Amino acid sequence: MLKTLSFTRQVVNTGIRLIHHTFKQTTLKNEISARKEITYEILNDVYNKDDTVLSDEKPKSVLESCDEDLSYVAPYLKPTFNFAAYVNKSETLQELLKLGVNLHKLEKKGEIPQYILGLEFERDIKNHVLFLHSLGLKVYEIGDFITINPNIFKESLDDLRTRINYLKYKKFNDEMILRIVCINPLWLQLRTPEIDERLGFFQKQFSLTGSEVRLLSVKKPKLITYSLKHIKINIFVIKEEMGFNEDEVKAILLDSPGIFMKSKYK
């Protein structure tokens, strides 16, 4: 009797487990089926939005002719500046032209065009022109000066007068100063201590007298404001590599100062 009841319970428990297992399998299949349907719907939605996926058109070859308007395609060019568009409206540019300033060269000087257009002739330029004229520069020489050194207008007149007075103190006469300023407009950009230091360098390095310093400055004004590093390299080349002594190097400097501005290989 007990064995019969035990067997019956085992049969019942087994049946329950089978039913439960079958239910889980059915539920799992339904979930998988539902997920597939959702996935198909998503994919259909994506394909329907992407015309290129559904399109049967083959991609064009780069060798095929193109009927599309490509006139808007152009290489990138850096912006350029041209004074011509402003000359008729700018009194400053008109006055600079009268002085003989080369506006075409000023256009190539970085931020200078915008700077020049921001100046007023009467307020920012006129007094500097009169100062240069007082040094003895003629009208066309003033134009050349401004073309080379438009930054002169950034310097105060008091500073410029101080630099001229320094040269006079060092016994440069008016003719010497005029030649220096005409040949090397950038000279006036240097502060008095800088000029003094440079003149002292040449005097000490080459054992020059005061009159020889003035002679060198007038003969080659650009040398005084040239790169001292470059000059020192050429001094080394002439003395150490070529074998010239101190007196010979000094003679070369006073006779042909431009040599010290050339490339060491030349």
TrEMBL record:
Name of protein: Transcription termination factor 3, mitochondrial
Gene Ontology molecular-function annotations: nucleic acid binding
Recorded family membership: Belongs to the mTERF family.
Keywords, alphabetical: Transit peptide
PANTHER family: CGI-12 PROTEIN-RELATED, TRANSCRIPTION TERMINATION FACTOR 3, MITOCHONDRIAL
Taxonomic classification: Eukaryota, Metazoa, Ecdysozoa, Arthropoda, Hexapoda
SMART domains named in the record: Mterf (SM00733)
One GO CC term, this protein: mitochondrion
Annotated source species: Henosepilachna vigintioctopunctata
Domain of life: Eukaryota
Pfam family, one: mTERF
Keyword Transit peptide: yes
Listed GO biological process terms: mitochondrial ribosome assembly; mitochondrial transcription
Coiled-coil ranges per UniProt: none
InterPro entries, per database record: MTERF (IPR003690), MTERF_sf (IPR038538)
